[in-house]
Amino acid sequence: MERVAIVGIGLIGGSFAKGIKRLYPTSNIAGFDTNESHLEEAMALGLIDKKGDDNTISESEMVLVTIPVDVLVKELPEILNKINEDCVVIDAGSTKALLCQTVEDHPRRRNYLSCHPIAGTEFSGPSAAFDGLYEGKTNIICEVEKTAFKLQEKALNLFQQLGMRIRYMNPEAHDKHIAYVSHLSHISSFMLGKTVIEEEQNERDIFDMAGSGFESTVRLAKSSPDMWTPIFEQNKANVVRSLQEYIKNLEAFKQMMEEDDFVGIYDQMNNTNRIQQILKGIPLTKTPK
C-alpha cells in the first residue's frame, strides 16, 4: 500500500486516509478534490501527502473514489481508463445499480470493486474525518465476482484491518434495502426540520424547548444537500416506494389520534419497540398469541 489516490477528500475519503496512514505509515497518499480549499486543508491536516496530478492515477495501486454519486457515474469510467492493470478502484457510493450498469462493459471492469461502507456522520469536509470511522461498520460489496480475485484480496485486507464487517449483495437489492434503512431516515430528518422551522417562527423557542429527542431525530438534517439530492435522484423508484409506506403509517397514526384510539397507538408503539433489539442484533422471540 505504497501509492494510494483518494478522489474526494471529505469525511469518507479523509477517514480512509487516516486509517491507511495508521496501518501503512510509509504510504504516499495523493488527493483529488474539485474544492481547492479542501485539498489545502487535507494537506495541513496530514490526510494526504500531495495533490494528485495527471500521472497519479496511473501510478496508484489503489484508488478510493468518495464523491457524490452523480459525479461518480461520470468520473468512474474515466478513472478506470487511466489506471494500471494491478490497481483496484473502490467507490463508496450510496447507490449501486446505476453505477454498476455504467461500467458493466468497461475493459477494466475487473479492476473495480463496488462498495458502500455504511458509515458517516452529519458533518462533511476534511476536518470531519477521523480514524476509527469504519470500526465495526458494515461494508456492502456488490458484484464481487466481477472483480479480479487478487484485487479483491487487496481491498478486503484493508477493510479487515479497518475493522469492517463485509456483506455481499446484488446492486438492485442494495438500492431497495438502503432506501428504507438510510435514505428514508434522511428524508424524515430533513422534513421534520422543515416543519419545525415553518411552524415555530421564533428561533429562540426552538433553541429553548428542543430536547435531546428532537436533536437526535433532526441530526441528519445537517447532512450535505450536494451529496443527498443525487442519491435520491438515482434511487428514485425505491425512495418513492419507501415514502409511500411511511406516509401510509403516518396517516394511520393520525387517524387513530382523531378517533381517540390510544389503545391502538400504544400497541403500535409497543410493537415497534423491538426495533432496538434488531439494531443490537438480539434474536427476536415470538410473542404468544
For the largest beta-sheet, the strand count, sense and barrel status come to: 8 strands, mixed
Cα separation of the termini? 57 Å
Rg over alpha carbons: 21 Å
Percent of residues in helices: 40-55%
**Percent of sequence in beta strands:** 5-15%
Residue runs with pLDDT of under 50 for 5 or more positions? none
Q: If classified by CATH, what would the architecture of the largest domain be?
A: 3-Layer(aba) Sandwich
**Helix and strand succession?**
EHEHEHEHEHEEHEHHHHHHH
Q: What gross morphology would you assign?
A: globular
CATH class of the largest domain, named Alpha Beta
Q: What is the name of the CATH topology of the largest domain? A: Rossmann fold
Number of helical stretches of at least 4 residues: 13
Number of strands: 8
Strand order of the largest sheet: 3-2-1-4-5-6-7-8
Tell me what the structure shows.
The protein has about 290 residues and is α/β, with parallel strands linked by helices. It folds into two domains: about 5-170, Rossmann fold; about 175-280, 6-phosphogluconate dehydrogenase C-terminal fold (Orthogonal Bundle), CATH 1.10.3660.10. The chain has 13 helices and eight strands. It has an eight-stranded mixed sheet, sandwiched between helices. The chain starts with a strand and ends in a 10-residue tail after the last helix.
Secondary-structure blueprint of this entry?
Blueprint: E1 3-7, H1 11-23, E2 28-32, H2 36-44, E3 50-51, H3 56-59, E4 62-65, H4 69-82, E5 88-91, H5 97-102, E6 112-117, E7 138-142, H6 149-161, E8 165-169, H7 171-199, H8 203-209, H9 212-218, H10 225-234, H11 236-258, H12 262-272, H13 275-279
Parallel strand pairs: 1-2, 1-4, 2-3, 4-5, 5-6, 7-8
Antiparallel strand pairs: 6-7
Helix pairs in contact: 7-11
